[in-house]
Amino acid sequence: MTYRSAVVFGFNEYAKQIALQIVHEYESFVVFVMDDNERQAAEIAGFETEHFDLGEDWKSIEERFDPNDLIAFCALGNDAENVFLTISLRSTFEHLSIIALAGDQESAAKMKSAGANKVMSILQITANVITEMLEKPTVTEVLHDILYENSSLKIAQITVPKGAFLVGKHLYDIDWAGEHDVLVLAIVDHELSATFSFTARGHNHHIDPDDILVVVGYEDKIAELTALMGG
């Protein structure tokens, strides 16, 4: 399902990258902020803003948007506040589509229980990976399924252990989709201070122990690949 309008709550780096990439996809788009620093940063970046607090009755959303044709990204920097925000939005808008970012898996579970339609852990995906995904047409379709549909696709990080069958191979030596049913978005090179090597940029990365694969796939396929590597 697609939506006419979108809102992002917060303007930390994750929220900013999401906003920058999706703003042109919607007829109306607003960044909701809690303080003047975020408001200033968002407006300098070119976004329309609106102030909110966690005690909102959300009349501003009801007046400006059709909640049934709106998607909300809860991207506050504090997980507890994000949980409270999710609860507040869900209690007011039964059919609102809510995507929440969580700092860890425990918080992700709480946000899901609080009413988020989808939850993404920021331990699994950095702002740069969000940007890269949204810039790649093929992966955009996958991201659409992850965010908007009832999909079992997951984004995960897999650390390459010493002695794994991947060690010593190059990224493009492996048919990731054909052999393992996963899509590799990026590799974090442990020798380059956690620098991301994106698969879209054509670099045939040499895989070393302790490199981290950022992959998209079904949960069972990711588990199979992890087990195959001895993880």
Give your account of this protein's structure.
This is Potassium transporter TrkA. GO terms for molecular function: monoatomic cation transmembrane transporter activity. Helix 1 (13-22) packs parallel to helix 6 and helix 4 (79-92) runs parallel beside helix 5. This protein folds into 2 domains: 5-123, 3-Layer(aba) Sandwich (Rossmann fold); 153-228, Regulator of K+ conductance, C-terminal domain (Alpha-Beta Plaits). It has a 6-stranded parallel β-sheet with strand order 3-2-1-4-5-6, with helices on both faces. Strands 7-10-8-9 form a 4-stranded antiparallel β-sheet. By secondary structure, it is an alpha/beta fold. The protein is elongated. It has helices spanning 13-22, 36-44, 59-64, 79-92, 105-114, 127-135, 137-148, 176-180, 219-228, and strands at residues 5-9, 28-33, 49-51, 70-74, 97-102, 118-121, 153-159, 182-189, 195-198, 212-218. The mean pLDDT is 82. Strand 2 (28-33), helix 2 and strand 3 form a beta-alpha-beta unit.
Q: Enter the CATH topology name of the largest domain.
A: Rossmann fold
Shape by Cα distribution: elongated
Radius of gyration: 19 Å
Mean of pLDDT? 82
How many strands appear in the DSSP assignment?
A: 10
Secondary-structure element pattern, one letter each: EHEHEHEHEHEHHEHEEEH
Reading side by side through the largest sheet, how are the strands ordered?
A: 3-2-1-4-5-6
- Which structural category do the helix and sheet elements fall into? alpha/beta
Oligomeric state:
single chain
CATH architecture of the largest domain: 3-Layer(aba) Sandwich
Question: What is the CATH class designation of the largest domain?
Answer: Alpha Beta
- Under CATH, the homologous superfamily of the largest domain reads NAD(P)-binding Rossmann-like Domain
Largest sheet, if any? Answer: 6 strands, parallel
The tally of helices reads 9
Through-space gap between termini: 36 Å
GO molecular function, one term: monoatomic cation transmembrane transporter activity
GO biological process, one term: potassium ion transport
Pfam family, one: TrkA_C
Domain RCK C-terminal: 143-231
